[in-house]
Amino acid sequence: MYFGYVGLQIVLLVCGGTKRFQDDDIETARKRWADYKQRKGFASWH
C-alpha cells in the first residue's frame, strides 16, 4: 500500500501488488501523488 498525507488526511495511491511488480507500483504511486498535488494546488509540496 502506498499513500501520502495532506494534513491529517491519508490519500491512498496504490493498493495490492506483489514483489515482482513493486518497482512499477512505486512509480505509479509517485505519478499519482504528483497528479494529486497538482490538481489540488499543492505542486510545490514534496
Number of domains: 1
Give the strand order of the largest sheet, numbering strands 1, 2, ... along the chain: 1-2
Total number of helical segments?
Answer: 1
- Strand fraction equals 15-25%
Low-confidence stretches: none
Helix percentage:
40-55%
Distance between the termini: 19 Å
Count of extended strands = 2
- Overall shape: it is flat
- N-to-C series of helices and strands: EEH
Q: Indicate the multimeric state.
A: single chain
The biggest beta sheet, please? 2 strands, antiparallel
Residue-averaged pLDDT: 89
Secondary-structure content class: alpha+beta
Radius of gyration: 11 Å
Report what the structure shows.
The longest helix is centred in the C-terminal third of the chain and has 19 residues, at 22-40. The protein has 46 residues and is an alpha+beta fold. The chain has a two-stranded antiparallel ribbon. 0% of the residues are buried. The chain has one helix at residues 22-40, and strands at 2-6, 9-14. The chain has one domain (2-34).
SSE arrangement:
Blueprint: E1 2-6, E2 9-14, H1 22-40
What keyword list fits this structure?
46 residues, two-stranded antiparallel sheet, 24% strand, alpha+beta
Q: Short description, anyone?
A:
The chain is α+β, with helices and mostly antiparallel strands and 46 residues long.
